[in-house]
Amino acid sequence: MEQKGGLDSPPLLYWGDSLAGITKQDKTICIGFVNIRGFGASSTSAKNKQFAWFAQQYGFDVLGTAENNVNWKALPIGDRPFERSRGWWPLRHVSYGFAHSDPSMASISDQPGGTAVWTLGSLVHRASDKGSDPIGRWAWTRFRGQHNKWVRVVAAYRPVFNPRDLNSTYNQHLRLLPPSSPDPREAFWTDLEVQLSSWHQQGDQLIIMLDANDDVRLSAIVARFSVFDLINVMYDSSLPSFDQPPLPTSSGTLPIDGIFASRSLVPIMRGYTAQGAQLSTDHSCLWVDFSSTALFWRSPPISYPRLLTVTSDLPRSKGGYYLHLLVHFLLA
């Protein structure tokens, strides 16, 4: 990984383009994702301040997180996401999910798993709706564009196989999924595909950010997303190449984190940081810059006035009609 930084931000090790900090381009929307490895149960946790600083310093408009590792339901109101983020940024919006109905975790504040989508700055005004999977495998925020154009940003987490730890994300899902469901890791895909199908049919442009706990370049994973015309915007073969092989996005040896987006959304810049760069986690922060025009602007359909037929043979009637028509177009 190379090393580079913006003028007002510490240097970051990175793959792809450099996350240069608050010097980001105008008219772009920066969307990122990181497995945060836990926020801490208290709003005074050092991780909170670190995350808030990182999001603002590096110009993020939306930042998705996975493995928040907090049972938000077991905390006082002041320690829950919206309240604890008060003062982090001038404007904020948050959507989050976790396995809130697991009776085994009812009184335990440190709960593995969970996802969130954090929005900051002026993009908050476009946040129209939010939601999450009932067991916290994904959370999403839906943004309104012009002329019925919508963008849905999703942060997702597929659990690692861990049957030994009774409180692991894997075992939480095993307890909460219907008995007829497949293994939690496979159920993640089957259930997400149902959601993707619904969102796709609504005509939403989609940005799916996830920790797949598998190589996101695998043909099986790529094929699942391609059904919905989603591509891996980090290193899809149809996009301009960096001529760099993808590097691990976690402490392992594979790129297990990815961002898949509708094919119509071509990134301006993209890349990811080295693991733990400016954040206390063993994962990279993935990020993509999109044009705000591509995300939110759509030209309205052109409608032409219906021309009336003149049935009178009187020259005066025809002359008056054509004069009226000329004035209409000049003033339009």
What does this structure look like?
With 332 residues, this protein is an alpha+beta fold. It folds into two domains: 2-296, Deoxyribonuclease I, Chain A, CATH 3.60.10.10; 308-332, no CATH class. The protein has seven helices and 14 strands. The protein has helices at residues 46-57, 81-84, 169-176, 184-201, 219-226, 292-296, 315-331; strands spanning 2-4, 12-16, 28-35, 62-66, 92-97, 115-120, 127-132, 138-144, 150-157, 205-211, 230-232, 257-262, 269-273, 285-291. The strands form two sheets. Strands 1-2-13-14-3-4-6-5 form an eight-stranded mixed sheet. The longest helix has 18 residues, at 184-201. The protein is globular, with a radius of gyration of 24 Å. The termini are far apart. Residues 4-8 have low confidence and may be disordered.
Short précis:
This protein has helices at 46-57, 81-84, 169-176, 184-201, 219-226, 292-296, 315-331, and strands at 2-4, 12-16, 28-35, 62-66, 92-97, 115-120, 127-132, 138-144, 150-157, 205-211, 230-232, 257-262, 269-273, 285-291.
Give the DSSP E fraction (strand runs of 2 or more residues).
15-25%
- CATH topology call of the largest domain: Deoxyribonuclease I, Chain A
What are the secondary-structure elements, in order, as H or E? EEEHEHEEEEEHHEHEEEEHH
Broad structural category:
alpha+beta
Helical residue percent? Answer: 10-25%
Could you name the CATH class of the largest domain? Alpha Beta
Quick one: biggest sheet?
A: 8 strands, mixed
Radius of gyration, taken over Cα atoms and rounded to an integer in Å: 24 Å
CATH architecture of the largest domain: 4-Layer Sandwich
CATH-wise, what's the superfamily of the largest domain? Endonuclease/exonuclease/phosphatase
The dominant shape is: globular
How many β-strand stretches? 14
Low-confidence regions? 4-8
Oligomer: single chain
Total DSSP helices: 7
Mean pLDDT: 88
**Strand adjacency order, main sheet:** 1-2-13-14-3-4-6-5
Distance between the termini: 56 Å
How many structural domains are formed by the residues? Answer: 2
